[in-house]
Amino acid sequence: KQKRLNISSCLQVTKMLKEYEWIASDKPLFGQPNTPYDFKTNNPKEVGQKLQKWQEKKEMLGRHVNMRAMNMLSETEERYNELMKKKRIVENDKTKILATIEELDQKKTEALYIAWKKVNEDFGSIFSTLLPGAKATLAASKMQNVLDGLEFKVALGNTWKENLTELSGGQRSLVALSLILAMLLFKPAPIYILDEVDAALDLSHTQNIGQMLRTHFRQSQFIVVSLKDGMFNNANVLYKTKFVDGVSTIAR
């Protein structure tokens, strides 16, 4: 009988060694003082009772625990990971959009400077043709930045005017006309219509407008309505309107 008990005990120990790997590593500590395996200080019976109480408490708590909590946690983690993925996509798109905006701003600035340089050159040339001896320019504002605005600078002879209010009404009309034509010259159209642009000007200025159109707009056609003979000297074709028996007629 004792032999059978010994064999049974050996088999049980072998089984436990296979199931619990920590037994082999902690075996040298069994029975040693000041260790968890000091069975003189730690009564196995009392420890067993405490273990049973903790197991009972665990079972009691288990009855009140939401068993779906782990599933809910898993679902929440999946949603979180999906949101983080979308966040990274949005952040990458934001970076690309900001880079595109910066590139477009740079191109816009470059295009604006090119347009300003060309329009300013033509503006001065046209104004000098319309008003011989005078000069005009589009200067950057006080901040010396075209993006902050431009201002007119006009000189009659060698005297630069501080303000356009120092010019006569006809001179201001020539400034406005020069700027409009300079902007049109930046991207010329095949045909333009001018309706009495010389109404506020004297005859000499009217003649200068006709000469300027011929020299600066060689690739464009103009339909010009005028009541002054000075404009007609530079025309290729003239159409005259008049009333005949109360009816408006046109003759070439």
UniProtKB/TrEMBL annotation:
<feature type="domain" description="RecF/RecN/SMC N-terminal">
    <location>
        <begin position="71"/>
        <end position="245"/>
    </location>
</feature>
<dbReference type="InterPro" id="IPR003395">
    <property type="entry name" value="RecF/RecN/SMC_N"/>
</dbReference>
<dbReference type="GO" id="GO:0005694">
    <property type="term" value="C:chromosome"/>
</dbReference>
<dbReference type="Pfam" id="PF02463">
    <property type="entry name" value="SMC_N"/>
</dbReference>
<keyword id="KW-0158">Chromosome</keyword>
<keyword id="KW-0175">Coiled coil</keyword>
<feature type="coiled-coil region">
    <location>
        <begin position="66"/>
        <end position="93"/>
    </location>
</feature>
<dbReference type="InterPro" id="IPR027417">
    <property type="entry name" value="P-loop_NTPase"/>
</dbReference>
<protein>
    <submittedName>
        <fullName>SMC2 protein</fullName>
    </submittedName>
</protein>
